[in-house]
From TrEMBL:
Role played: Site-specific tyrosine recombinase, which acts by catalyzing the cutting and rejoining of the recombining DNA molecules. The XerC-XerD complex is essential to convert dimers of the bacterial chromosome into monomers to permit their segregation at cell division. It also contributes to the segregational stability of plasmids.
Protein name, per record: Tyrosine recombinase XerC
Compartments (UniProt record): Cytoplasm
Oligomer and partners: Forms a cyclic heterotetrameric complex composed of two molecules of XerC and two molecules of XerD.
Highest taxon, organism lineage: Bacteria
Principal localisation: cytoplasm
Record bears the keyword Phosphoprotein: no
């Protein structure tokens, strides 16, 4: 088999794409499914798309990685030998540029047979649809083959939350060292302001406004919003910021830092939350997003202001926030019993 080399500038600009393609060439070229000319053309397209996601859309590395993974799966499926696509002949031209709607539906059916959930299928379709919008914009295709493919429905699971008593137990920790002080501050902030994990670890010192009692958060799509900080969370933050200097490396701007003095990693937050769950004797699993869910549920239950909760959570679509209106049946039943004339107890 002829060995294939890629220009260094292409490998660099491809980022994660390059590693996948170097492993994939060995299979596809040996099966004579594609030509070197197509490989190089596709490399250049993916490099441009990679630049589009990072530099133009400014998506986070995690989001881009998710898009890469879904697109890699689709391209790999397109280039399987002829007996792998329902009897159709595998293309020897740039298949990704000549995809038909029927092929997209076949791919989704293939994934469905493998047992992927409706939610996963929706995400993959969204990734491919976004890629073809880019190709259409660049005049590389004449139409978007995904535009007429409807996403499969999936049962929307209600978010899991903690009750107020459980959260009180979790946050009532003995802050007898600098790490405990840090952990209490970040847990208080997660629950007080409903932050996503990536938003929490992405905070810098200058994002905290103690005078206005708020934090500036950079959410999905690099959209900024200001979120209020509660009294207890603010006090915990101020205590942490006074002791942070003993951990932080010189010049480090991150609000929350590790023992090494650098920005705290998301997995470290998850690990520390589980540590304190066990320390406090809580049986219910605790993760950062559960504190966010609990924040939304408790604020909505107390205020009934769906729009305000949407703004604080940073949801682009209010339908995403509406799921929290279905959480507390006992609360709804209590309101019903007190308000409905035929339900009032004597």
């Amino acid at each position: 088999m002829k060995r294939v080399f890629t220009p260094a500038w292409v490998r660099y600009s491809l980022g994660n794409w390059g590693g996948w393609w170097r492993g994939h060439w060995r299979v596809t070229l040996n099966r004579r499914c594609i030509h070197w000319k197509w490989v190089r053309e596709l490399e250049l397209i993916l490099a441009r798309y990679h630049h589009h996601l990072f530099s133009e859309k400014r998506y986070s590395p995690r989001t881009v990685s998710s898009y890469e993974h879904d697109l890699n799966d689709f391209i790999a499926w397109l280039n399987k030998p002829l007996d792998k696509q329902g009897g159709e002949v595998a293309p020897v031209e740039p298949a990704v540029l000549t995809v038909q709607t029927g092929q997209v539906r076949q791919w989704i059916s293939h994934l469905h047979r493998k047992g992927l959930s409706g939610k996963s299928l929706q995400r993959k379709l969204s990734s491919i649809r976004r890629f073809y919008r880019f190709l259409l914009r660049e005049n590389l295709v004449e139409n978007n083959p995904v535009v007429d493919v409807q996403s499969p429905k999936h049962a929307r699971k209600l978010p899991d939350t903690l009750d107020a008593e459980t959260i009180e137990r979790l946050l009532t920790i003995t802050a007898d060292d600098v790490l405990a002080v840090r952990d209490r501050a970040l847990m208080e902030l997660l629950y007080s302001s409903g932050l996503r994990l990536a938003e929490l670890v992405g905070l810098d010192l200058h994002d905290v406004d103690t005078y206005q009692q708020q934090v500036r958060v950079t959410g999905k799509g690099n959209k900024e919003r200001y979120v209020p900080v509660g009294r207890q969370a603010l006090a915990a933050l101020q205590t942490w910021m006074q002791q942070r200097v003993s951990l932080a490396a010189h010049g480090e701007t991150a609000l929350f830092v590790s023992k090494r003095g650098t920005r705290l990693h998301p997995r470290s937050v998850q690990f520390r939350l589980n540590h304190w769950r066990l320390q406090q004797g809580l049986e219910q699993h605790v993760h950062p997003h559960k504190l966010r869910h609990s924040f939304a549920s408790h604020v909505l239950e107390s205020s009934g202001d769906l729009r305000a909760v949407q703004e604080m959570l940073g949801h682009a679509d209010i339908s995403t926030t509406q799921i929290y209106t279905h959480l507390d049946f006992q609360h709804l039943a209590s309101v019903y019993d007190k308000a409905h004339p035929r339900a009032k107890k004597k």
